[in-house]
Design goal:
Largest sheet: 7 strands, mixed
Oligomer: single chain
Number of helices: 18
Shape: globular
Bound molecules: pterin cytosine dinucleotide, CU(I)-S-MO(VI)(=O)OH cluster
Distance between the termini: 41 Å
Length: 790
């Protein structure tokens, strides 16, 4: 690791860390405004209940309380319901019914947080409890209570049916296949659980009509447009500021009722209103992820050639369908589920249902549901290997797409841009010492060693960097991103982008992109993001789209600046532009390298008292909107080694080898950090995490005592490797990487545990593989996915 600053790509310490490690970051809760009031939300104790009455009089009478807002107040303003990212509607504050435990019922604005919280206790709500739907598998039963009776004529809990792929072709192959395996599996409900909870500070200026909202959003511009739509405010009078964010992981893409309440609170009181969630509120009420019940099937030949794959999914979307994914795809990118393999055909069917659980859907480092798809196919590959008695690495090698098949069109119509999969898997196996590991395992089994050793593999292909805009939109907003580059007279630059870092280090890597393209130091580039008044429009950061889209915009806008600099240089040097050539940071005369001008000299000249060439109005600044031609497809091979104690069910992750290919790496150190984080996430999901509910819909994981986060104690020292297959359509050849490890690693961990349990004849067990679940599996008892700590 080096602290020196390169001229472009390479390892360098994160610029933003200078303020983070000195406690100088500025998060929403750090922002203090004069006269600021504080909000608190009253939440439903029931999973499903009719609201008979809400009495706020005692709360209003409490000294220090400035306003109590209910669903009825909002209904009067036409704001009781707001659109979700999936074109459903969600109650801002409940009017008719509450539909999940933790749902927002009333909002108190008071002089301080404590008074606001005290006032919540004084609000009297009369509920008539109703039966609830907690298990998605019962949501469509005749007798199931209808959750969304607010929707016109809604008589059941069905949201959508959706399919992709070729049903007839798939069926035909299954019919004549030599081998068929089928496996039910659950990807349980989990939560992104960022360190910083959600919150908002709204400041409505009655005089100017300007509304400023600070909130930790991953997509500030999309939020601004949605606020304009929801609140009916003119968009040019709205400024969304997303300051430093303490982790988003997808949970900060959407708009939560509390944000709207803070805005209404500010409009009603004429004062700035801040609302910050506590941990339990965050775990109970903000976007969850997964909750997919899947039945996957593979058709193959006796010698392990996979021919077809099909899957049926029951998707639990909670009480409001609020998933953040491109409008056309109700199941996100789940249909990339043929994964990394050369499979002739595939078919999937997904049914979405409502349940009495918190809304949301895709969020949590998911690339729009590829997480579930990768888990499915990688688990199925191991199930097939189990049935064929084949080594899972050999089975994968046999079926991986070959380098000469790229660009490759998948059976469900996705065009993978580039890859060399066997090389990446081979490197992972070499790093792991795969054959030695298998030999050790065999020896230990032969010796009757009590500790069970397991080796698990996964191979994943991701699809990240949405658009192009004509195929991908959210509520009609096409997924493209803007960038602006200003170059000051002294050659220092400011890059303004529409994406927003939540910890991914954009202030560093985006400066490195400009530095690489312009030949200046990254220290001479400031990156501005997260403020709609200061940045160009774009759809923000999720689905690992920043590098593929905004990063491309940053490169392209810098190239525009470079082209303009060339014209200025030609005037300065009195040669034709065609006679100039670019070497990092400098235009010089071809064949006469001494005769040239640095970008700093050119910047000064572009602002100077000189005659500028035709086509250059003055200075070098440029703007650009990047509409990606395709997604980028990063991939990787993961190998996990575990030791399982059969007496306690305890799993120790002994080693984890991860070889990632995200094309050209801008800052390898940041990429490795992203992978470390994602691998820890994977261990969390595979072994520890579960958003559990009792049968009445009571949330059983509303604190970090019940919803466990992996720490350094549970994680091994990661062993990382890399291969580099540049994206052919991305200006710098980079692919996104921010979610790769979260997507790819759970299957490797689960496969490793099940490999350890193979001597017991166990083929599959659902996550989370907590000690008691592993122990239950060994005892032949069903896995429990209904308890927080099982
Ligand atoms: N990078 C690079 N070279 C590449 C690819 C990426 O140097 N070839 C760098 C990027 O420039 C950026 C970082 O790695 O600094 C991640 O880039 P990218 O893959 O483009 O992902 P995004 O920046 O769009 O981040 C989003 C992604 C998502 S969707 C989730 S969820 C997630 C993740 O990032 N949430 C995170 N990583 C997270 N990391 C932190 N610390 N906090 C979160 O909330
Ligand atoms: Cu789906 S979690 Mo990330 O895409 O913000």
């Amino acid at each position: 690791m080096t602290t020196s600053t390169p001229m472009g790509f390479g390892r360098m310490h994160r610029k933003e860390d200078a303020r983070f490690i000195r406690g100088r970051g500025q998060y929403v809760d750090d922002v203090q405004l004069p006269g600021m009031l504080h909000g608190a939300i009253l939440r439903s104790p029931h999973a499903h209940a009719r609201i008979l009455s809400v009495d706020t009089s005692a709360a209003e009478a409490l000294p220090g309380v400035k306003a109590v807002i209910t669903g009825e107040t909002l209904a009067g303003l036409g704001l009781a319901w707001m659109p979700t990212l999936s074109k459903d509607v969600q109650a801002v504050l409940a009017t008719d019914k509450v539909r999940f435990q933790g749902q927002e019922v009333a909002f108190v604005v008071a002089e301080d947080r404590y008074i606001a919280r005290d006032a919540l206790e004084l609000i009297e709500v009369d509920y008539e409890p109703l039966p609830s739907v907690i298990d998605a598998r019962t949501a469509l039963a005749e007798a199931a209570p209808v959750i969304r009776d607010d929707l016109d004529g809604k008589k059941d809990n069905h949201i959508f049916d959706w399919e992709a792929g070729d049903r007839a072709h798939t069926e035909a192959i299954f019919e004549r296949a030599e081998v068929r395996v089928s496996q039910d599996m659950l990807y349980p409900r989990v939560h992104p659980a960022p360190l910083e909870t959600c919150g908002a500070l709204a400041d409505f200026d009655k005089v100017t009509g300007k509304l400023t909202v600070w909130c930790p959003t991953q997509a500030p511009h999309a939020h601004r447009t949605l606020y304009a739509m929801v609140a009916g405010l003119p968009e040019h009078k709205i400024r969304v500021i997303s300051p430093d964010i303490g982790g988003g992981f997808g949970g900060k893409v959407g708009i939560y009722p509390g944000y709207v309440c803070a805005i209404v609170g500010s409009i009603v009181t004429g004062k700035p209103v801040k609302w910050m969630e506590d941990r339990s509120e965050n775990l109970m009420s903000t976007a969850f992820a997964r909750d997919y019940h899947m039945t996957g099937e593979i058709a193959a030949t006796q010698d392990g050639r996979v021919q077809a794959i099909r899957v049926k999914v029951l998707a639990d979307h909670g009480a409001f369908n609020g998933t953040a994914q491109p409008t056309k795809f109700p199941a996100g990118f789940f249909h990339v589920f043929s994964g990394s393999y050369d499979i002739e055909t595939a078919h999937c069917e997904v049914t979405g249902v409502y349940s009495n659980k918190a809304p949301g859907g895709v969020a949590y480092a998911c690339s729009f549901r590829i997480t579930e798809a990768v888990y499915l196919v990688e688990r199925l590959m191991d199930v097939l290997a189990y049935e064929l008695g084949m080594d899972p690495a050999e089975l994968r090698m046999k079926n991986l797409l070959r380098a000469d098949q790229f660009p490759y069109t998948s059976p469900t119509g996705w065009e993978y841009d580039s890859g060399d999969y066997p090389r990446t898997l081979a490197l992972a196996m070499e790093m792991a010492g795969y054959d030695k590991l298998r030999a050790e395992q065999a020896e230990r089994r032969a010796n009757g060693d009590r500790r069970l050793m397991g080796i698990g593999l996964s191979f994943f292909t991701e699809a990240v960097g949405a658009g192009p805009r004509k195929h991908m939109d959210i509520l009609g907003l096409g997924m493209a991103d803007g960038a602006e580059l200003r170059v000051h007279p002294t050659g220092k630059a400011v890059l303004r982008v529409s994406c927003q870092s939540q910890g991914q280090g954009h202030e560093t890597t985006f400066a490195q992109i400009v530095a690489e393209e312009l030949g200046i130091s990254p220290d001479d580039v400031d990156v501005v993001h997260g403020d709609t008044d200061q940045t160009p429009f774009g759809l923000g950061t999720y689905g690992s789209r920043s590098t593929p889209v905004s990063g491309a915009a940053a490169a392209m806008v810098t190239r525009k600046v470079r082209d303009r600099a060339k014209l200025v240089a030609s005037a300065m040097l009195e040669v034709a532009p065609d006679d100039l050539e670019w070497t990092k940071g400098r235009w010089s005369v071809k064949g006469d390298p001494k005769h040239g001008a640095t970008i700093q000299e050119i910047a000064l000249a572009s602002h100077g008292a000189v005659e500028l060439p035709e086509g250059v109005e003055g200075h070098l600044d440029a703007t650009c909107v990047y509409n990606p031609p395709n997604l980028t497809y990063p991939f990787g091979a993961y190998i996990c080694v575990v030791d399982v104690d059969p007496d306690t069910g305890q799993v120790d992750v002994r080693r984890f080898i991860a070889v990632d290919d995200c094309g050209v790496r801008i800052n390898p150190m940041i990429v490795e950090g992203q992978i470390h984080g994602g691998l820890a996430d994977g261990i969390g999901m595979a072994l520890m995490q579960l958003m559990a509910f009792d049968e009445d819909g009571n949330h059983l994981g509303a604190s970090f005592m019940d919803y466990l986060l992996p720490t350094a104690v549970e994680c091994p020292s990661w062993e990382l490797g890399e291969t580099v297959t540049p994206s052919p359509h991305h200006p710098i050849g980079a692919k996104g990487v921010g979610e790769s490890a979260t997507v790819g690693s759970p299957a490797a961990v689960v496969n490793a545990v099940l490999d350890a349990l193979k001597p017991y004849g166990i083929r599959h067990a659902d996550m989370p593989l907590t000690p008691s679940n592993v122990w239950r599996a060994i005892q032949g008892r069903p896995i429990r996915t209904d308890l927080a700590i099982t």
